[in-house]
Amino acid sequence: MRGKDTTATHKGTTTMPKSNPRHPNFPIPGGPELRAKGWRQEALLRLLENVLSVGEDPDNLVVYAALGKAARNWPSHRAIVKTLTEMDEDQTLIIQSGKPVGLLRPMPRHRSSSWPIATSSGNGRRPKSSTSFSARG
Question: How many whole angstroms separate alpha carbon 28 and alpha carbon 46?
Fold first, then answer.
């Protein structure tokens, strides 16, 4: 979505994505269109796009507090978006430190097992400052 506004209208209503006056290069996701293979994947794709559309410095992937990033870098962001649009409903995308690191499919007999959609965690330590946080990399 980065870099272009593809706002369209259908029967007099604006569909996805909507233009974003705050960050014109980052349209606001929404509407009935499905770009992924399922709504679970589409929801995470829209979440990623939405945090950028309202983010602090979306050109640098910074979404809050000058440290929180939507992805590690633009190649990682593109890989996450590509995977979300291509993955099947029963797969789980693993993202570590803003970089996609794996795509899992459950064992055939465990297809109904529960699985996390998205998680976030640190390494158990609190940084003393934003400098020490950045140094951990």
Answer: 9
Q: Which residue has the tokens 């995470």?
A: 44
pLDDT in tens, 100-116: 999 988 766 665 655 55
* Partners of residue 104 on adjacent β-strands: 92
Long-range contacts: 29-34, Cβ < 8 Å, 24+?
Answer: 29/1, 29/53
17 Rama sector, left if φ>0, alpha if ψ -120 to 50, beta otherwise: beta
Place of tokens 């369209």: 8
Residue 57 pairs in a beta bridge with 62
116 token code pair:
């996390």
The strand ranges marked E within 3-131 are: 9-10, 13-14, 62-64, 68-69, 92-96, 99-104
Residues in the chain: 137
Q: Are 92 and 103 in contact (CB under 8 A)?
A: yes
φ/ψ of 33, rounded to 5, equals -70, 140
pLDDT in tens, 39-95: 989 999 999 998 888 888 999 999 887 778 899 999 999 999 999 999 998 888 889
